[in-house]
What we know:
- It contains 4 helices and 10 strands; from the N terminus they run αβαββββββαβββα.
- By secondary structure, the chain is α+β, with helices and mostly antiparallel strands.
- It has a single domain, classed as Catalase core domain (Catalase HpII,  Chain A, domain 1), CATH 2.40.180.
- The chain starts with a helix and ends in an 11-residue tail after the last helix.
Amino acid sequence: MIRTVFRALAALRRAPAFHPRGVLLGGELRIDGTGSAAGTALGPGPHRVLVRLSKGAGTPGKLPDLLGVAVRVEPDGARDAVDLLFTTSTARGALLAPAWGWRRATYSTLLPYDTAAGRVRLLLEPEPCEPDPPADPRAVAGAVRARSLRYRLVEAPLRAGARAAGTLVLTEERTGAVAFDPVLHQHPALRPGPLLAGLRARAYRGSRRGRGAAPTELARTP
């Protein structure tokens, strides 16, 4: 049922079922150290990233939406690419919440990740920046040219306080398209929880089939 719904919606739009409108950016994910789940999986220091900022439902212009930040930590000699997907949410990251701008809400993975230290939710918290781009992907490129966009990466254990893990810094507009999938492109030390990962995998398969993309396609989408 889930796969069928997402396939039909993607076929109708001729684009991903959700987050059809977005902009691709480049930058770095700077991990503070090895004391976090992200640090254990990715290693400390700067990592090159491709990031897509997008609107979940695809509302026009500056209208609010469930805004998304899709992060691909690019592969290096020690590991493959790792995808992390975030959506605007309540402060603790447990519930979806629409936003009016790219810096006006917390972003959350929503589903918990299994790590050696237990289950955690990953959050992105925006840092102050001028200009403050509204909820329109076309406004992001100008904001990045004027000044980098920065988000704090935070890990929120389900039964404990949150801890800082690093900083996401977006510095330039990029061209092309990337097929993000946090289930296909995960790290063994940072794994999406099994129940929601299964639901998301079915949704992604349906969306890919609806728009004619190959399941393992990494470089581009139609």
